[in-house]
């Protein structure tokens, strides 16, 4: 997993710091975005191998960010894991229908999250960043 890139989209500074620490410990390169619009702006430059996405974000909600990722040919195959306080079955279903690799409800188990991150990053995916 060393050298893989993860874009963390999270507006809570404490959770952002925790995720940054956990992922760096795994040898991953971590990019951050604090709102939905910043996340979309960073997708091409960051070229992430994985996106960790909060749903309740300023400027553009997480499900809208996920929809944009899935409908952009350059990003559509990038794996996404949701980390959110939203535990409603309807929202979870929307995430799964948009092809997320995992859905974690805050507070989440860091060990379980890392297990899924490791699994996702060990799988080949055909991300294309041709502009």
From TrEMBL:
Protein name per Swiss-Prot or TrEMBL: Sensory transduction protein regX3
Sequence positions bearing 4-aspartylphosphate: 54
Species per Swiss-Prot/TrEMBL record: Candidatus Fervidibacter japonicus
Superkingdom classification of source: Bacteria
InterPro entries (UniProt xref): Bact_response_regulator, CheY-like_superfamily, Sig_transdc_resp-reg_receiver
PROSITE patterns from the UniProt entry: RESPONSE_REGULATORY
GO term, biological process aspect, one: phosphorelay signal transduction system
Taxonomic lineage from the root: Bacteria, Candidatus Fervidibacterota, Candidatus Fervidibacter
Keywords from the UniProt entry: Phosphoprotein
Residues in Response regulatory domain copies: 5-121
SMART domains in the record: REC
């Amino acid at each position: 997993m060393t050298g893989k890139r993860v874009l963390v989209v999270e507006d809570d500074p404490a959770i952002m710091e925790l995720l940054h620490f956990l992922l760096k410990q795994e040898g991953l390169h971590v990019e951050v975005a604090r709102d939905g619009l910043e996340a979309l702006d960073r997708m091409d430059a960051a070229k992430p191998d994985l996106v960790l996405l909060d749903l309740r974000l300023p400027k553009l909600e997480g499900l809208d960010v996920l929809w944009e990722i899935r409908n952009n040919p350059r990003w559509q195959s990038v794996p996404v894991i949701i980390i959110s306080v939203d535990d409603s079955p309807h929202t979870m279903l929307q995430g799964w229908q948009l092809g997320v690799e995992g859905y974690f409800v805050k507070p989440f188990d860091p060990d379980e999250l890392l297990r899924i991150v490791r699994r996702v990053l060990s799988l080949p995916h055909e991300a294309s960043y041709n502009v």
